[in-house]
Write a structure and sequence with these properties.
By secondary structure, the chain is of the alpha/beta class. The protein is built from 24 helices and 17 strands. Strand 12, helix 14 and strand 13 form a beta-alpha-beta unit. The structure holds adenosine-5'-diphosphate and zinc ion.
Length: 520
């Protein structure tokens, strides 16, 4: 216990100065206190426990669920001259034996341990034999039962408090909402921890959310016009779409690599390390990719499908621009996304309460997509940060969307849903509204409905925009039995009774940033 935290920062890690909150956090933990750290991805959480681990005597024990990344983290530390090791299920007996001895003898500065391993009697006994500098609990939101990264083993981590009451603990996460924070404090027994919550703004990321019309064309235009030669991540909902998109991008001349949980571990490993080490690589991935990925110069993150919550959107887009340079987060979303996500949530195995929470989370995400004001203001407000002025670095700030009085159109749409029996999806209802002649319409006799052909003044695309916004705002519900039939909700009443007008966002023709921005 010789060097000061600043010495360690300078000489071991080679950085000049601490970032905003790092200094206070490091001092708190080095002084022996518990800390709860909430910091966006890329904010610099690792140093918050690595430096106290070195500044204090004994071994720093880091609990991390990311077995795949432990080896990388440990070899990075070793390169800096830190004596680090890890314990997880991938190691052979000899290595485990050596690492355990090194912990017992006090040789190791830091050890990464998977949660399921840490809570084993054998490991706890080992730690009782050793001198421990601190416990760091990384990705602490995994303890939240309602969150999507929940790990049952995290619930048992209260043993650290119960069995090692004198050892300081630091829990870290990028998930910021109140509930998760409260659950971390309660489950990990961090009532006495000092809380450090850092700003969530990522000012260098340009947020852009567009209607998905011709996704491949939109993507291609974005990559060619703005991202030539850059590294980026493209997220898709399904494995099949990941593979198709990666193959197609390669045909278009890009270095695109697929990544999803269905690929052999060796392929995943190889694609991930190529992405980390080479320039000009695009990773096409499911959300399986990215937890803990640290590549500073990711210039863009593109979502070809809508994430299911604002937290997920923020985490995933947060992988862009960790180096602080201008970066872009592009999301393409459409009617199908909403219908699909609503159904997925409803048909999941969760309890009723879980489903309701998931629907609320999805609604917040839809709100972000449909908002006509500054996106960053909405995004930050969601995490409890107020931003007094519009940001000037999102698509809505660049060119504010038009709105139009959609009251009449909405009334037509709702009554057409009602007249056709609330048994059909948007495409069929739109066909009725536009007076289309197709077999389904004739078979169902829908050409005789009073609403047949009453909506010719709007194009199919315009109607799709209306229906998307009706579903997003909860005026129409999606039947979850599987066919996506639309149904009226209670909220429709005032509109049907002529008591309420409704303004809607006018979807812009798809533009790239280059054409959108006025020359300065
Ligand atoms: P997080 O875990 O919060 O996502 P990391 O700990 O991986 O973030 O840090 C993100 C990046 O910022 C890393 O490349 C890291 O080396 C760098 N970094 C962290 N703290 C500092 C600092 N004080 N000075 C310079 N670079 C830093
Ligand atoms: Zn803005």
């Amino acid at each position: 216990m010789s060097d000061s935290p600043l010495d360690i920062l300078n000489h071991v890690f080679g950085y000049d100065s601490f970032r905003a909150s790092q200094r206070d956090i490091v001092n708190c933990v080095t002084g022996g206190q518990d800390a709860l750290v909430i910091m966006p991805t890329g904010g610099g959480k690792s140093l918050c426990y690595q430096i106290p681990a070195l500044a204090r005597t004994g071994v720093g024990v880091v609990v991390s669920p990311l077995i795949a990344l432990m080896e990388d983290q440990v070899s990075a530390l070793k390169e800096l001259g830190v004596n680090a090791g890890y314990l997880n299920s991938t190691l052979d007996y000899d290595t485990v034996w050596h690492t355990e001895n090194a912990i017992r003898s006090g040789e190791l500065d830091m050890v990464y341990i998977a949660p399921e391993r840490l809570i084993q009697e054998r490991t706890l006994a080992l730690l009782h034999d050793a001198e421990i500098a601190l416990f760091a609990i990384d990705e602490a939101h995994c303890v939240a039962q309602w969150g999507h990264d929940f790990r049952a083993d995290y619930l048992k981590l209260d043993v650290l408090h119960n069995q090692f009451p004198k050892v300081p603990r630091i829990a870290l996460t990028a998930t910021a909402d109140e509930r998760t924070r409260a659950e971390i404090i309660e489950r990990l027994r961090l009532e006495n921890a000092q809380q450090f919550i850092s700003g969530f703004d990522r000012p260098n990321i340009h947020y852009r959310i567009q209607q998905k019309n011709k996704p491949r064309e939109q993507l291609l235009r974005f990559l060619k016009d703005e991202q030539q030669g850059n590294c980026g991540v493209i997220y898709c909902l399904s494995r099949a779409k990941v593979e198709d998109t990666a193959t197609w991008l390669c045909q278009q001349g890009f270095n695109a690599l697929p990544y999803h949980a269905g690929l052999p571990a060796s392929v995943r490993q190889q694609n991930q390390s190529r992405f980390l080490r080479e320039d000009n690589i695009i990773i096409v991935a499911t959300i399986a990719f990215g937890m803990g990925i640290d590549k500073p110069d990711v210039r863009f993150v593109c979502h070809l499908d809508m994430p299911k919550s604002v937290e997920a959107y923020y985490q995933e887009t947060g992988r862009a621009g960790r180096d602080g340079q201008p970066s872009t987060a592009l999301l393409l979303y459409g009617l199908e996304d909403i219908v699909k996500l609503r159904q997925m949530t409803e048909n999941s195995d969760g309890s009723e309460m879980f489903k309701r929470q998931e629907q609320h989370r999805l609604n917040a995400m839809l709100g972000l997509c449909e908002v006509t004001g500054c996106r960053r203001q909405v995004l930050l407000r969601y995490f409890g940060d107020e931003m007094p002025e519009p940001c000037g670095n999102c698509d809505n700030c660049d060119s504010p969307p038009d709105t139009w009085d959609a009251t009449e159109a909405v009334r037509k749409a709702l009554s057409c849903v009602y007249r056709s029996g609330q048994r059909f999806g948007a495409s069929h209802v739109i066909a009725i509204l536009r007076g289309s002649d197709n077999e389904k319409i004739r078979t169902c006799g829908h050409n005789h409905l009073s609403t047949y052909g009453i909506g010719k003044e709007l194009s199919t695309d315009e109607w799709r925009s209306v229906f998307r916004q009706l579903i997003a705002s909860g005026l129409l519900a999606v039947d979850t039995a599987g066919y996506g039939a639309l149904q009226l909700t209670e909220q429709c009443r005032p509109i049907l009774r002529n008591e309420q007008t409704i303004a809607m966002r006018r979807d812009k023709p798809v533009q790239t940033r280059a054409t959108q921005r006025k020359p300065t």
